[in-house]
Design goal:
This protein is of the alpha/beta class and 262 residues long. The protein is built from eleven helices and five strands. The chain is elongated, with a radius of gyration of 30 Å. The model has no long low-confidence stretch (mean pLDDT 89).
Length: 262
């Protein structure tokens, strides 16, 4: 009323039915409230993905007798609300039937498999398979593998066997980023993205990954990154050159590839 008219504060309060002291009241925080608010801020900075309910649980664990409503008020007043992560939208792609290629280097499939070292540190393994010959083109192991890292691995593999005509992947950020897209364009390679949440559309690599986990990852305890690389490459060599594959008429992938070259 006072913003829109020239009415006095006394008259405005009388019309609104409130006391002038109520209008002028400013809440005062006690020392205990200030200390609690400071502790909430400290916990929120230490645990950036914790909301007020988990902050409340931590406070109770520390011995603070405070209910969740009070924690919520102080948490909100300090503007500590955790921003919701936006759900990453998948690229819209048509469903494509999974057809078994008839030529070597016609289609490769790629995916990631995770494991951990003995010290608990996670390692990431890029699996690359030729869909026709079932060869394990490469099994790259590192703590982190970016899109640019993927292109370097593919270039290294192509030096020995040539580039594929197409590569099938899921919609992980390493596969849908600019680095791999530009690399594929420069080499004339088609990227075949499967639909989000449809791993069966990349069934060849999923089958390989299951075998890789059962026969290698679940059978070994890796002490270091270099140890993991040695063991995994030994398994890859054995898989390509010694292991008969039922889909290849019980030939090894190396034998199937040699048959297509001859």
């Amino acid at each position: 009323m006072r913003a829109e008219t020239a009415i006095s504060e006394r008259r405005a309060c009388a019309l609104a039915g409130i006391y002038r002291s109520t209008l002028r009241y400013e809440p005062r925080q006690t020392a205990e409230t200030v200390a609690l608010k400071d502790r909430i801020v400290e916990l929120a900075q230490e645990r950036r993905r914790f909301g007020y309910r988990r902050i409340h649980a931590l406070l109770r664990r520390e011995g603070h007798e405070v209910n969740h409503k009070r924690v919520y008020r102080l948490y909100s007043a300090a503007n500590l609300a955790v921003k919701r992560r936006k759900r990453r939208k998948g690229v819209m792609v048509p469903r494509e039937p999974l057809v078994l290629p008839t030529q070597r280097n016609e289609v490769w499939s790629m995916d990631f498999v995770m494991d951990t070292l003995a010290n608990g540190r996670r390692i990431k393994i890029l699996t690359v398979v030729d869909d026709c010959t079932k060869e394990a083109v490469d099994l790259a192991v590192d703590f982190g593998i970016s899109g640019e890292y993927v292109t370097r691995i593919l270039d290294q593999a192509a030096r020995f066997r040539g580039y594929p005509k197409a590569i099938r992947t899921d919609q992980g950020p390493e596969f849908t980023g600019r680095a791999l897209d530009q690399w594929a364009y420069e080499h004339g390679i088609q990227l075949k993205l499967i639909q989000p949440g449809k791993p069966t559309q990349n069934a060849f690599i999923e089958s390989f990954n299951g075998r890789f986990r059962d026969e290698c990852l679940n059978e070994h305890w890796f002490h270091t990154l270099s140890h993991a690389r040695v063991v995994i490459q030994q398994w890859r060599t054995d898989y390509n050159e010694q292991r008969p594959h039922s889909m290849l008429g019980y030939r090894t992938p190396a034998e199937a590839a040699e048959g297509l070259r001859s």
